[in-house]
Amino acid sequence: MSKKHLTYDDRLAIQAGLQKGLKVAQIAKNIGKDRATIGREIKAHRRLVSTSNGNNCVHHKTCTRIRTAVPPR
Fold first, then answer.
1. Is residue 28 in some structural domain?
2. Is residue 60 part of a domain?
3. DSSP three-state, residue 58
4. Domain interval for residue 23
5. Count: domains in the chain
6. The model's pTM
7. Which residues, other chains included, contact 25 with Cβ-Cβ below 8 Å and sequence gap of 6+?
8. Which tens digit of pLDDT belongs to each residue from 6-50?
């Protein structure tokens, strides 16, 4: 197998490193890849988990300002 591409085990090591709170440079050193490669992999495949309930406004029940995606007719 070519050394150009990340293997599944490399990706698992990246995930484990991120979960442990390691820096990108440390993860790269652990798996023997350049830190730019690791950074690109993280950026290309990251998933952001939202902890919001969909409405961040504390005054949403009394708010008179209404926003719609499509203007009313």
1. yes
2. no
3. coil
4. 8-45
5. 1
6. 0.63
7. 35
8. 999 999 999 999 999 999 999 999 999 999 999 999 999 888 776
